[in-house]
Design goal:
One of its GO terms (cellular component) is cytoplasm. The protein is α/β, with parallel strands linked by helices. It contains 6 helices and 8 strands. The protein has 2 domains: 124 residues, Rossmann fold (3-Layer(aba) Sandwich); 66 residues, no CATH class. The strands form 3 sheets. It has a 4-stranded parallel beta sheet, covered by helices on one side. The chain has a two-stranded antiparallel ribbon with strand order 3-4.
Length: 207
């Protein structure tokens, strides 16, 4: 007797303006993810004047926010939304932060390492784009002749265990679309290739 697959939950996805392209890609991955909007305005003095559209309608729903902390200038206004959304009587709130710049010193080498930088009321779910990269590597015509070059010691610490079956040593340079400004600078420029996290994020949101 086959076990029934768990139903995917319906998710309302809000996003910052910087992550708009990625948000649309995520929503395109599943009919269970519906995009929502926020009016990102500013007062004359430059402070954020934000408005969450259809705030009454999200009560009792699973809500997510796709953030981008690419620079200190954009963090403050997003924090306002991050604090506001859970207070709108939602069923659950998930913060999706593909690029976590302040986490450089707290990198985990693998699942199970101590997470000392979040409080007890936050349950972090760390995902990585490495499976996506490995899949792409095996699709290459010369997949048997690949050497991995890590740009720095931090990258080696984070990823070497998952890529240890490749020789370690630049014909290819892959980057995910976790940081929109970086993607815009290198998109369609050799040797860079952008791997989208949209599918992985969409799957994680519906668990």
């Amino acid at each position: 007797m086959e076990m029934e697959k768990p139903q995917k939950k319906q998710v309302l996805l809000f996003y910052c303006m910087e992550a708009q392209d990625l948000a649309r890609k995520i929503a395109a991955q599943s009919d269970h993810i519906q995009l929502q909007s926020i009016n990102w305005r500013s007062f004359d003095d430059g402070f954020p004047n934000l408005f969450i559209n259809n705030a009454q309608d999200i009560r009792g729903h699973h809500v997510s926010f796709l953030a981008s902390f690419s620079s200190p200038a954009v963090i403050f206004e997003q924090l306002s939304v991050i604090f506001a959304l859970p207070r709108l009587f939602v069923a659950s709130f998930t913060l999706v932060l593909p690029f976590f710049p302040t986490g450089s010193f707290e990198r985990m080498e693998e699942e199970g390492d101590e997470r000392f930088y979040f409080g007890d009321n936050v349950l972090p779910c760390f995902e990585t784009g490495i499976p996506l990269l490995k899949q792409r590597l095996h699709q290459l015509a010369d997949s048997d002749n690949i050497v991995i070059a890590f740009p720095d010691d931090g990258a080696w610490k984070r990823f070497h265990k998952q890529l240890d079956h490749f020789p370690m040593a630049f014909a290819y340079f892959w980057i995910t679309d976790s940081c929109s400004p970086t993607v815009k600078n290198i998109e369609n420029k050799a040797p860079f290739e952008v791997l989208s996290l949209a599918g992985s994020i969409a799957d994680a949101l519906q668990i």
